[in-house]
Amino acid sequence: MQYFTKIRQLLDNKFATRAILAALCVIMALLPLFLNNYVLNVLWNAFFYMLLAMGLNIIVGYCGLCDLGYAAKFAIGAYTTGILIKTYHWNFWLTLPASLAVSIIAALLIGGPTLKLRSDYLAIVTLGFAEIVRITARNSNITGSATGISAIPRPSFFGIRLVKPNHWYYVFLVLVIIFIIISGRIRNSRVGRALAFIREDEDAAQAMGVNTTSYKLLAYTIGAAMGGITGSFYAVKMTSISPSSFDFTQSVNILLAVILGGMGKIPGVIVGAAFFAIFPELFRDIPVIGDMRMLFFGILLIAVMLNRPQGLWPDKLGSEPGGLPGDINTVGRR
Amino acid sequence: MLALGGVCVFSFSEVVLQQLINGLILGSFYALVALGYSMVYGIIKLLNFAHGDIYMIGAFACLSVFGVISKEIPGLAGIGLSIAAAMVLAGIIGYLVQRVAYRPMLEAPRLSLLITAIGVSLVIYNTVMLMTNGQPLFFFSGIDNSAGFSFGNIRITYVQIFMLALSATTMLALSFFISRTMMGKAMRAIALDQDACRLMGINVNKIIGSTFIIGSMLAAIAGGMACVYYGNVQYNMGYTIGIKAFTSAVIGGIGSMPGAMLGGLLLGLLEAIGTQVMTSMGMSGSAWKDVFAFGILIVMLILRPNGLMGKTDVERM
Amino acid sequence: MRGKKTARRLSLLIALAMVLSVFTGCGGNSNSGGGGNTGSGGGAEETITIGVLTPTSGTEAFYGKDMLQSYELAVDEINAAGGVLGRKLSLYPADDGCDANMASLAAEKIISMDCDFVVGGYCSGATIPALQLFYDADLLMLISAANSTQITALGLEQSFMLNSPGTHALLTLIDLCKSLDVKKAALIHQGDAYTKDLSDLCEAGLPEAGIEIATVQVMDKGAPDVSAIVTAIRNSGADFVYWCGYHADGSNVIKQLRQGGYTGYIAVGDGSASPELITACGEAGEGVYVTSPPFVEFAVGGEKFVADYNAKFNMNPGNYATLAYDSIYVLKAAIEQADSIETEAVRDAVQNISYQGLSGLIKFTQDRELEVSNFIILQIADGTFDLVIID
User: Fold this and answer.
1) For residue C156, what are the contacts with CB-CB under 8 A and spacing of at least 6?
2) Which chain C residues are Cβ-neighbours of B234 within 8 angstroms?
3) Which of A119, B296, C193, C212 has the maximal Cβ count within 10 Å?
4) Do B107 and A292 count as a contact with CB atoms less than 8 A apart?
5) Residues B239, A333: C-beta atoms closer than 8 Å
């Protein structure tokens, strides 16, 4: 505990923080020089789950909406990019605005009418919507039916064709930094405070004049847009996408990453996603444990919920200064 | 070796009737599972994600017990006993899950409770998957599943009639239990106001425990029926029916017992008719039937958020 | 102010987490040793390492493990007989979890472990992303089970499919339909890449042979009720039903077809070609046709394989065991022919190979698919599979 306080004090020191941050940026940027492709790809996978988890975090962590179909948001982006590149031969970078637009429209269409509903109904609506997206992708010819779209060409960036693992490491590292900035900005803005208010006590928020439905819709749309963009990059990184990558298990995986780390708190989400992505790789050579990872995650999920319902590293926004992180629970009681 | 029976062309009414029978049987599975969802939701406002997995456990229990006792007690008696044993086991597991994972969470935010339920579902699902290597187990009842009545081209088998009768009896018994017994009254009271019940001297935890036991037993009946009727049992059989049953419960109005039954039957019928209509239109009906079912769910929630038989209720977070 | 501080701390911790993850990643990699490049042929004493890409966790683990065991059996046999070119073989199994992400990580792991060749490939959705990586790393892969037409459509010349593609199943099916004088066929698949691919091929190919498609239906995994589908099929006037799915649900479909009063022919694809289908179907299974890759029982040397497999693993080999077993022997033959383990030379040797394995004659076309269909037609009669010969 002493060490923890010391670390805290160190982090409060502006100069020290900046120095450490700068050093870390340099380390992260230089890492590809020392690591082999496998480790880079593992890190890439961690970045990928971080992006998804940060997107879902806006919906679940900031706003307290339960979304059990986040894989669909990410599928919409991936398929938009995949179809535009393969069928209509668009440039990858031009598909990004298109994928953003489609994601936002889809989120508005599904969120607009249903966000007024009770929170548990929302869970099942998002789940149902995700199934609709997956089944439609599976049954339609334009999405390549059940086999999906393969051989999506890799894009170029200022003349460099993005083919090597270290290229994608940097692309996703930059994306992670952008997503952290976006998430941080939202969290500390007026919108972020309104969302936290809605999460803690929706009725009170409404009574105080917060337009809860439109703020919820805003959070839902931002989350979906972030998922869509991640999906677009995923499609060109993997060069192939298929409906099986976007099933319910995937939605649960992303939710796990958000919940384990701590809903609402960016470092919590980052750590959760990194843990989720790296854990199976640690046990790759010990199959007995690797095979049981989902069972392990299930037990961990229950244990975390029972002991720290707000995740291992929860958000403290809304609790009294100096209060315990768990204090948030007292507000959310029924 | 099998004589080709010629191409039989149904009349329109025969197709409709046969699909109604198909839908009714599917719907009775949905209804039994939906009842458990609805009871639990009504009483502690929890979307019990693990309920479909309890159904799966029921099916496995029925299969295993029948495998042991079928030598001594074959046929219908053996099946009945196996389903009863499955009910007991599912009841115990349902209670344990409630006791270990849900009870400490009753005061926590609902989102946390829901996530705990997903965790429980992951644990059960993966445990069974690892235990069975992901392979199906097959059930041999020794009863001729294809024996039955034929009216023109319409067919209904004895097993199907038995399934319908069993689920109808179960649902009637449950209605009686909820409306006429003290415990049923207590359940309804807790659904209305937990704190008031506590003040009135009702042992709330005990009643919640009983609700889980009864809900799990209903799921086990459905699981046992599936085991006998379809003849194969697999770890992933709980997921789809879990979602469909929840959809049924929502369509009927979650928290309402008659609503869950109505919703289940309705969803079963809609799926069967939907498959037929889309196939007749030249589409692959069964490929789109889930899109159809979930589409109905979303439209239903937008138009009538409280379901067909649900009461208007202000959400209390 | 507080918020800003928190934000700063957050970013710091993220970075910390990343560093941590890097260390763990390195730790996992520590046994790869040296960090030398692939491809360089070492001393003659070195073992030849074969990467194995199969799903050994998750929903398809059963098949992945079955394949892995078959590889182990073949490698042990070869090593006991003195190895290849005087060098021992060793396997490096990597779990792809039947998932695209995990598969690309597994592929990178195999590449980083300096493996010389790769075998495996069960789920095509997981195999396709991995193939691209193997291609970039100049590694040869023999794909034992996955047989999606999209794999060869990728045009990667260092990957060969040992399993007959769906087009071969279609040709066999057309032969069967013609001999039975089928007018209208109904297809049922399970919505995943493997079964949908087969169904799509049949949907396109059967009409060309003069057989009308009555309807195409889907039975999702884990949703056992197909009564509505049965009625729709009966109403469509189909006199032949082809089940493209797996044996887990196949018995249930066959039983419900018969219960629902369907009296026409039923045939099942290679996903259902398992002795378990017979026991699970019981009475309803009589007369059902199977378009199947050769069964172990019908292969030369099959009995010995089953006995050896049983002795080693105390279980019966699964559907893709023979293909997996043959993959290693094909690789051995190619290496010996090339007298080297250079990818280029072995690739050319595989391209020209002609090997009679348990799964039939293995010989490749220029598209790197099997040249000769190894499909046979079986029929269930009196509780066993009978070979059906069509002139």
Assistant:
1) C131, C132, C134, C135
2) 222, 248
3) C193
4) no
5) no
Cα angle: B40, vertex A248, B261; to 5 degrees: 35
Does residue C7 fall inside a structural domain?
Answer: no
- Same-domain status, C157 and C170: no
Minimal CA separation from C283 to chain B, in Å? 9
Specify the number of domains making up chain C. 2
pLDDT tens digits, one per residue of B139-186: 888 777 778 888 888 888 888 898 899 999 999 999 999 889 999 999
Inter-chain CB proximity A24 and C16 less than 8 Å:
yes
Task: With CB atoms and an 8 Å threshold, state whether A145 touches C196.
Answer: yes
The secondary structure of C299-340, three-state, reads CCCHHHHHHHHHHHHCCCCCCCHHHHHHHHHHHHHHHHHHCC
Residue B284 lies in a domain: no
- The boundaries of the domain holding residue B116 are 31-135+158-237
Give residue C387's Cα distance to chain centre: 23
Residue owning tokens 């792991």: C109
Establish if A180 belongs to a structural domain: yes
Q: Does C191 touch chain A (CB under 8 A)?
A: yes
H/E run at residue C37: none
CATH number for position C101: 3.40.50.2300
pLDDT higher than 90, residue C14: no
CB hemisphere CA count around B165 (13 angstroms)? 6
The mean of the pLDDT values for chain A is 84
Nearest CA in chain B to A125: B298
**In Å, what is the CA distance from A314 to each residue of A59, A178, A265?**
15, 22, 6
Contact C25 A163 (CB under 8 A): no
Distance CA B292, CA A135 (A): 11
pTM of the model: 0.88
ipTM entry: 0.87
For residue B252, the tally of other CB atoms under 10 A from its CB is 29
Q: Can you give the residue range of the structural domain that contains A114?
A: 42-245
By C-alpha distance, the chain C residue nearest B127 is C58
Q: How far is CA A111 from the centre of its chain?
A: 18
Token duo for residue B99: 């006791």
Residue C28 above 70 pLDDT? no
For strand C117-120 and strand B232-233, is the pairing parallel, antiparallel, or unpaired? Answer: unpaired
Report the C-alpha gap between A236 and C54 in whole angstroms. 24
